[in-house]
Amino acid sequence: MYMREFTSAAPEVYQALGAIGKAAAGSGLEKGLIELVKVRASQINGCAYCLDFHVAMARKLGVSQSQLDLLAAWRGAGALFGAREQAALAWTEALVLLPGGGPGESERAQVREHFNEQDFLHLTVAIGLINQWNRINVGLGILPPEAEAPRP
């Protein structure tokens, strides 16, 4: 299935998810940080469509190629990722993987050292939303535009 087929078959779903995305994007969180989180979640979830889209967005927003190249191994990338980025990426992994049924208070405390209440809420929503998009796209077999087979 292609994204255009999904959007035409379920426009209300597409619009609802888009509204959540706009709310999270308008929260004041750094746009590059949000794209790093979306790329990392999409790597874990194996969503080619979201990886294609959000890597391109990250580049447009000035996220360095080094960060994009080493994102899958961010814990071992030294000072390439700042403390706030590391906290957001750790929170992303905790929410995507849900180890032991979900993150505990220690994981929440670690991320909240770097994010105020409102930013923590919006970061969590952004991570939840990209997980939803990943599951929709993977479940429906939605491919990035470059991977679409030529149509007769």
Concise structural overview:
This protein has 152 residues and is mainly α.
Description:
The chain has 8 helices and no strands. By secondary structure, the chain is an all-alpha fold. The protein has one domain (16-141): AhpD-like (Up-down Bundle), CATH 1.20.1290.10. The longest helix is centred in the C-terminal third of the chain and has 24 residues, at 117-140. It is globular and about 45 Å long. The mean pLDDT is 94.
Keywords:
152 residues; 8 helices
In which range does the helix fraction lie?
55-70%
CATH topology: AhpD-like
In the CATH hierarchy, the architecture is Up-down Bundle
Instruction: Give the DSSP E fraction (strand runs of 2 or more residues).
Output: under 5%
Structural class label:
mainly alpha
Terminal-residue CA separation: 16 Å
Main pleated sheet: none
| Beta strands, count | 0
Q: Would you identify the CATH H-level superfamily?
A: AhpD-like
Order of helices and strands: HHHHHHHH
The whole-number mean of residue pLDDT values reads 94
Number of structural domains? 1
Shape: globular
Any chance you could write out the topology, listing elements then pairs?
Elements: H1 3-9, H2 11-25, H3 31-45, H4 48-60, H5 65-70, H6 83-97, H7 105-112, H8 117-140
